[in-house]
Amino acid sequence: MMDDKVVPELTVDNKIVAELTIPENVAKALLLVSNSSSLEKALEKLIEVAKEAGGRLDLSSKNVVTIVLCLCQSLSSTSYRHLLLLSLKVLRNLCAGEIRNQNEFLQQKGVEIVVDVITSVGFTPDPDCAIIRVGLQLLGNYSVGGGECQCDVWYQLFPHKFLKISGVRSREICDPLCMVIYTCCDGTDGLLTDLCSDQGLPILIEILRTASAVGLKEDWLKLLLSKNCIEGSYISSIFFKLHSYPSVENNGVVTHVADQFVIEQSYLLSILSEILNERIEHIVVSHDFALSIFGILKSAVVVVDFSIRGKSDLPTGSAPIDVLGYSLTILRDICACDHLTSSKEKSSKDVVEVLVSSGLVEFLLDLLRDLEPPTTIRKAMKQDQIKEGAISSSFKCSPYQGFRRDIVAILGNCAYRRRHVQDEIRDKNGIPLLLQQCVVDDDNPFLREWGIWCVRNLLEGNAENQGAVADLELQGTVDVPELAGLGLRVEVDPVTRRTKLVNVP
């Protein structure tokens, strides 16, 4: 047991503070192990030494974790937050990948001490972010130690302290908080279940609200959302709890009383879209996630105003439009990586088959059919047939730059080496519609490239579809020379005006 004693001539910021009360042997031990003349210099030196693996290992034999934890308990006065911050940095570095230090931290009930420090700072609108941030980084490094360390952190903070911390709208705090939660849950299914329970979901909701307001620099939130939403089955719970208005469900389409979406919801989908785009070759997609995104898309189509042509790409700043757009980009990427389906679902349909059997292809064809023609076709149309104003009033407009392109991209990905999808598109008279997408469109960058990809996938290995294209009668409004990029050419019979599809020599 260590007795408290006034230790004179300790310096903080080059000032002597004789009133600082800490255990004498704690101060002496720190000065000795660091070969320093002041407490502040001792802590600064230990921070540097503990940055290296060899330094952490060497200090683990000198009980530095225990000594610094005792120091933290003595630094309760707000006058010495600088020393407290240095102490936490020492512990943070010591617990980074060194099992001996992690075990010592566990034995000395380090989590309880650090949580007391974080709590003592308070969670006011303007808290001491540096103390909380470093304290969370320390807990994150410690929890990497595995099962016992993970549970030690989790049951000290979940749910109430996590919830209080998540309510602080600070990027400096939100990033390490996500780190702690992820490292605790990683490989521990029970804790992940806790996080997605009625007690845990409010924590995720607050984190998303903070992240959407202040942004994040690190990827911990992405890792969390990948586990919970993309690989798991909690996307709907999280997405709709972000909305402050009640919702109703009718035939699988969820709508809100306010008939709107909120910015936090579009932010969530933007993050999920980024995850899929960045990890398209490695992601594991659950059926629940894919079907939930399809349901969100159908809800967004009901809400979005299609009478105004969008002038910007995603994000547009309009929550409903962004929800619509990110739902499409997510489905586009899901349909491009369907071979990586959850191991729990290997025996059943792959994720694209689940979406197709739920009506995705027909839904997208209907959306595309209702849109005004691409700009190239509109300009090629005879003015006495249809005027620009008539098009705008009778057709829907693309609500953002790329809306048409994203629909075509999903259809193209779905049709890739799927005979039944190719046939469904033909049976629903979708081939002429998709041929019209092989053109440049001012409102949809890269529409031509995605259109060609889609048509290629429709025709590959499908004689019936190739014959359907060859039987089309040109309407005299627009040609599609882009088919040459597929090694094909449309020839027109001068007598019958019928067309046939031939290989380019």
From TrEMBL:
UniProt xrefs under InterPro entries: ARM-like, ARM-type_fold, Ataxin-10/CTR86_families, Ataxin-10_domain
Domain Ataxin-10 stretches: 403-495
Keyword ATP-binding listed: no
SUPFAM superfamilies: ARM repeat
Highest taxon of source: Eukaryota
Annotated Pfam families: Atx10homo_assoc
Keywords, alphabetical: Cell cycle, Cell division
Biological processes, Gene Ontology terms: cell division
GO CC term, one of those recorded: cytosol
PANTHER family (UniProt xref): ATAXIN-10 (PTHR13255)
This protein's name: Ataxin-10 domain-containing protein
